[in-house]
Amino acid sequence: MSDVTSNPANEPVVDPAPGDHPPIAYSPRAAAWARRRASFAELARSVRSDRIAFGGLVVLVLFIVMAVAAPLISSRSGLSAVDSVGNSAWARPSWEFPMGTDHLGRSVAAQFVWGARVSLFVGFAATVLTVGIGSFVGIVAGFFGGWADSVMMRLTDWFLVIPFLPLAIVLATVLDRSLWNIVFVIGVTTWPATARLVRAQVLTVKQRLYVDRARALGASRTHIVGRHILPNVAPLILANVTLAVPISILTETTLAFLGLADPNQTSWGKTLEEAFGAGAISRNAWWYYLPAGLGIVAVVLAFTLFGRALEEILDPRLRKRSRGQR
Amino acid sequence: MSLLELRDLRVTYRSERGDVPAVRGVSLTIERGQTVGLAGESGCGKSTIAGAVLRLLPKGTLVEGSILFDGEDVYEMTPGRLRAVRWSGAAIVFQGALHSLNPVRRVGSQIEEAIMLHSADLGLDRSQARRRVGELLEQVGLRADRARSYPHQMSGGQRQRVLIALALACEPDLLIADEPTTALDVMVQAQVLALLAELQADRGLALLFITHDLSVLNSVCERLMVMYAGRVVEEGPSRELFADPRHPYGRALSQAFPTIGDRASRMHPTGLPGDPPDPAALPSGCAFHPRCDVAIDECSALDVALRDVNAGHRAACVHVEPPNKRVTNKSVTS
Amino acid sequence: MSDLLRLRDVHVTFPGGSKSMVVRAVDGVDLAVAAGEVLALVGESGCGKTTLIRSILGLEPIASGSVEFDGEPVTGSRRALRDLRRRVQMIFQDPAGALNPRQTIYEAVAEGIRIHGVPGREVDLVADALSRAGLRPAERYMSRYPHEVSGGQRQRVLIAGAMVLQPQLLLADEPVASLDASIRGEILALMRSLVDDTGISIVAVTHDLGLAWNIADRIAVMYLGRIVEIGGAEEVLADPQHPYTKALLSVVPEADRMEQQILVGETPDPAAIPGGCRFHPRCPVVAAGEAERLGILDQCLGVDPALVDTAPDRAVACHLTVARGG
């Protein structure tokens, strides 16, 4: 990959008779790994050089670390109203309570840190579900075509047409209000967009000449999907993932704000809901609602910027151009 | 005064990888009504020349030497004068692939657009322009009502005719045809070539025909130039050049498409080893030497200028001796 | 000598633009290819030549007629097709498009080996195939990507990928049309040498009559889905009998000796094939009135001529030839 500048017309034609060479020490597996490492290194380099992408990534990593290390940073008791009886309510930020306290005297900082956990978890988990269902539907519909395509697409259209919020509300109300159910609700209502995207890409790749060649070589459908369709659809799916996560987070926030979230878990949306309900806005207790709000904005923005930059970097056309294509 | 004159034209593309010399010193002249052919393969710089004449090269491209259209330096023209010259002085016919025409506009309106852009000079209003579109389409062998078709509704040959009509819209003096028949079937190619010949004869158009098929040029053009790696390596009257090419590359190109019936090429396809060079990484000395079967030691160090073979016929090869000192070519490989 | 490939009355149709119209891309083709011979299938766009060879490999469904390979009829079963697709290989007009940009050259050549489980050390098989295709030393090309090599080299990779399976028949769809003129000869010479070295047969689809002159033993001329003339390449090219073949030869720029017969109009649409002889609307013989003079005009307008032998190993589908006694 690195010797792209050598000009074949200039290279001397070393011409041993065919069959007359020493055994070749080329290992396709080793070469594949070397290539993957090189690709990754190049990707890392591109991300580092794109300041916006890098900034987004840094912000994300910070939040994820904070969420994962929540037990180390802040004690869970800070979330309990019972344990907070002794604290003064509506306290402004202070040394003891860096983000002040809420209407029940609970530490807002604790809610921020633990809320991050739930928001991010739901964001990622729901995305896995969304992208999983969407990709499967998209690939099956795109590759097999015919009635499979029609059925899948009608299903997709059905889900697309139903207004999201009423559907989410109905589902959340019908099911128990638990964390996993929220994940389920979000996943099940947002997969259609991914499905359409993936299907379109599969249709494009399916028409490529190299797929014809694979068929002419005798490849089975599994081989074609695994070796040709998926690798050319994967970058799209990856970029879609990085953009689906913020959408899921926002959706969770919306549902929590509407009071549909798990009552036993704190999330940023829940914090906003409680702050709103307790009258924090009219009291001008900015320390209560601002952290959660800004946290959501920061994470969503970071994901979006990073995802957009990642999409550009992974676009094979752009990649080829940077290698000095003839 | 010649209609088009290129004097030592050098074009260098600027890219993040460095400078790429696409054209390295090309001089040519085209008189009014003359047909000149430019033959070469990918990377030789022929399409760059086509773009350079009308200043259609990407921004930042370095252009040295001069291009004189009707005596005026194209690169010294004011934007207004350049606009006037573009299309009504010289026009380009591109390859008729689907992306040469705007796919979402009817072909008639695209030709009309070209006319209206020069409406002041041509003295035509919109309705007159529309009538002219119909006339142009008929002149290229299409029905006037085809103006209402979209490009994808037409065949390759028909699209090519539309591009010719488009090029003729403003009555240019020079027509530059860049690979106009390359993607077409041999019968459609013949139709398009016949059309070009007819138009050229009727209007006294000068024609610069660019392609990689030397035999096509032989039937269309009076004079021929063969380009390789940004330079002209052979030029001369087409019949003579085709019959007796003196540059090894010219020879290879003329043999690339065999003459049917010629016993020498029966079951004996001939070509050149290697590939056309990458303009960003040219060989030293004569750019052709790695693929040349008569290269000698000097060829990797020395870049030969065009030498006279006889009247009007020149070739840039170390083996070319002037007519009074002609020596038979010996094969001496390095 | 038994034929390697026998096509009997093959028809391939596509659904047309409007519901009633059917595109008769291949409209009754009988063809035989012997072992070790090169057959050039010549015609213009839309004549069905590419569709015909694709249908041999099952890439297009055959509406009616039969394909016999090596004495055995080819059924449509998956196993039969898979087996056929090992013994019959194809190379394509667009070498860049026919190679997956994400696969290295090694993987592209090894694909066939892996699909069919060819015994032997994979690395050696790939290296040998690359060498025989003219890419030497093979190691230099193995880890490269298709966009890192030239057009001619890509076509050699495709040839290597096909030959590594040691096929008996190679179908070449416009093998040199998209390559530079100076490379054309080398690739054609390679193809001819494959026949001499391995005894393979080649069916080369092209619109370039010069290709037939360069490498073909026999030539078949197609027009609107039918073969209109077939015979030894030299005989047909030196003395064409069908008016279409004559016209084609007359306009080839390299054949300066004939008077040009430029046919009027576009190649008609395979969705609307003229009645009678499908060539009659453009036939110079009809247009010049000669058909009328000879009294065959009614036939030309009303009767579809069959391929009639005019000499051993020479056949023409034309009323004029029959009228003149062959």
Blueprint of the fold:
The complex is a heterotrimer of chains A (326), B (334) and C (326).
Chain A: H1 28-49, H2 51-68, H3 70-73, H4 108-144, H5 146-161, H6 164-174, H7 179-206, H8 209-216, H9 221-257, H10 268-277, H11 286-314, H12 316-322
Helix pairs in contact in A: 2-4, 2-11, 4-5, 4-7, 4-9, 4-10, 4-11, 5-7, 6-7, 7-9, 8-9, 9-10, 9-11, 10-11
Chain B: E1 4-15, E2 18-30, E3 35-39, H1 46-53, E4 62-69, E5 72-73, H2 79-88, E6 90-93, H3 107-117, H4 119-122, H5 126-139, H6 156-168, E7 174-178, H7 186-203, E8 206-211, H8 214-220, E9 223-228, E10 231-237, H9 238-243, H10 248-256, E11 307-310, E12 313-315
Helix pairs in contact in B: 3-5, 5-6, 6-7
Chain C: E1 5-15, E2 22-33, E3 38-42, H1 49-56, E4 64-69, E5 72-73, H2 78-87, E6 88-91, H3 105-116, H4 122-132, H5 139-142, H6 151-163, E7 169-173, H7 181-198, E8 201-206, H8 209-215, E9 218-223, E10 226-232, H9 233-238, H10 243-251, H11 284-287, H12 290-293, H13 297-302, E11 308-311, E12 314-316, H14 319-323
Parallel strand pairs in C: 3-8, 3-9, 6-7, 7-8
Antiparallel strand pairs in C: 1-2, 1-4, 4-5, 9-10, 10-12, 11-12
Helix pairs in contact in C: 3-4, 3-6, 4-6
Instruction: Determine the N-to-C terminus distance of chain B.
Output: 45 Å
Shape of chain C: globular
Biggest pleated-sheet summary of chain B: 8 strands, mixed
- Share of residues in helices of chain B: 25-40%
Largest interface: A-C, 39 and 48 residues
Label the structural class of chain B.
alpha/beta
Number of strands of chain B: 12
Q: What would the average pLDDT of chain C be, to the nearest integer?
A: 90
Can you tell me the overall shape of chain B? globular
Uncertain runs of chain B are 329-334
